[in-house]
Amino acid sequence: MKMRTLLMGAIASVAFAPVAFADGHVGERGRDGEVKILYWQAPSILNPFLSGGTKDVESASLIIEPLARYNEKGEMIPFLAAEVPTVANGGVSEDLTTITWQLADGITWSDGTPFTSADVVFTADYCMHPEGGCAQGAKFDGVESVEALDDKTVKVTFSSPQPNPYGPFVGGESPIIQAAQFADCMGAKAPECTTENFNPIGTGPFKVVEFRPNDVITMEANENFRHEGKPAFAKLTFKGGGDATAAGRAVLETGEFDYAWNLQLAPDVIAKMEEGGKGIAIAGFGPLVERLEMNLTNPSPDLPPETRSTVAEPHPFLSDEKVRRALSMAIDRELLTEVGYGKAGAPTCNLVPAPAIYASDNTECLTQDIDGAKALLDEAGWVDSDGDGVRDKDGVKLSILYQTSTNAVRQDFQALIKDWWSQIGVETELRNLDASVFFGGDPGSPDTFQKFYADVEMYANTFNGTDPQTYLAAYRCGNEPKPASQWQGENINRFCDPEYDALIDELARTGDIDKRAEIAKKMNDMITKDTMTIVPLVNRARVSAHANSLGGVILNVWDSELWNVADWYRMK
Predict the structure, then answer these.
(1) Do the beta carbons of residue 113 and residue 181 sit within 8 Å?
(2) Cα angle vertex 167, ends 163, 170, to 5°?
(3) What confidence tens digit (pLDDT) does each residue in 537-558 have?
(4) What pLDDT sits at residue 26?
(5) 3-class DSSP state of 257
(6) pLDDT above 50 for 269
(7) Which residues touch 275 (CB under 8 Å, ≥6 apart)?
(8) How many CA atoms lie less than 13 Å away from 503 in the CB half-sphere?
(9) Please, which pLDDT band fits residue 7 given cuts at 50, 70 and 90?
(10) What is the distance between the alpha carbons of residues 128 and 138, in angstroms, rounded to a whole number?
């Protein structure tokens, strides 16, 4: 009974209710013509299991769906399931080792075939395949087995009690794929299945008509979608590419598009665009953090890929914790926030800045300390031995390749950080890559953030829901992207600490919400404050824009922004 009490305490704030659609009128499916969505980071694949990029996860969410997801309040709600399992309703076992999902009635795939528990089991097998690489593998951390009890019942068994059993099949990052379509795409074959990865059959409100990677996706309403009269739009055009400035203008000034994602622009620029009168900007804070990732492995092109992907060959200077710490100390996070985001950002030292209960009281990094950074490097033996302005030690220079995606704010950040690092004797080469490539996950590309063929890289990501367990579990030893995993994996830095792994396991079996928060904060501090493996910069609000004529839009910082696209409609 104690474990049951802990589970209910951990989810006491979560409300379980059926999806509510709110356009206020009933009509025929497709009645409102076309809706146009613009993501300036263009999708390169429609399979979230083969990409950690937000652009790919969210575009795919229009087509394939999870059993449950999170609404704009962070509350879990059923999607393909009849209800969210709990101990109280019998869906979660008293000992917390199993969760049993009942699928909702009347769900079919867009090709008209039945959606069954076999599809859910297949999805688990697909992601957990030992010869494959799954970008969402942390969702299945601790899963022992997934089995179909009948056509509408799926049982997940964990290797130990799980007070938070909502990793697999929950949120936009963990949708269900069709077993029949992906049957020949298991393991190492997964990235080779172009047709399946570009044109998934789904249960969502739209289906793919044509997908041109890194460009445009044409979709049409799914005639087999389970909600009568939904979606309101007969056609959806999902355009990718360009930049945040052009995206903002296309909605706020010209009205060419209905929705623009991720307006990573200075606040005064957005305000000026809104004067165009065609749309409005919307914003909300969640756990989205712009940060620097420190490469713990040697990225030298002289080494084979296998070596470059593991700590078998440590980084020549970033393996020194004092160097990583000095790089962080040199940064003025207040100025970065002012320049890049204004009120839509907040300086942070945390990888997990929200919800508040999980946010560590970690503020040391908020004060820039150039002199302190210099002293730390001196102490570590990094000195400018030849007078060229760049520190060195044992023949190794502090010369950094610093990469990120192409975006005006990020390039401003790069320029500022390069200047601060030069003041402490660090040489920096800046590199920016097209976002569609950088976040694309193509195992054949040398330029993805997963391969991390640089010393430092910068980007932002977040997690679904209000519990950071699976997010933090990404840094388990062995979860690094590597050739054997088709370069998928979430442990970008190749961080590995048995003590951290033990905390992952402890968090998974802890139900008391305050104790969970204590463990999560300790994990956050281990990879930020204690080791500077990840150097957080800014807690960013999600900022997007929609046309004045587009109704039903509800910004969601806890799941895909497109979570309720079936509820969108054209205002008359």
Answers:
(1) no
(2) 120
(3) 999 999 999 999 999 999 999 9
(4) 61
(5) coil
(6) yes
(7) none
(8) 25
(9) very low
(10) 10
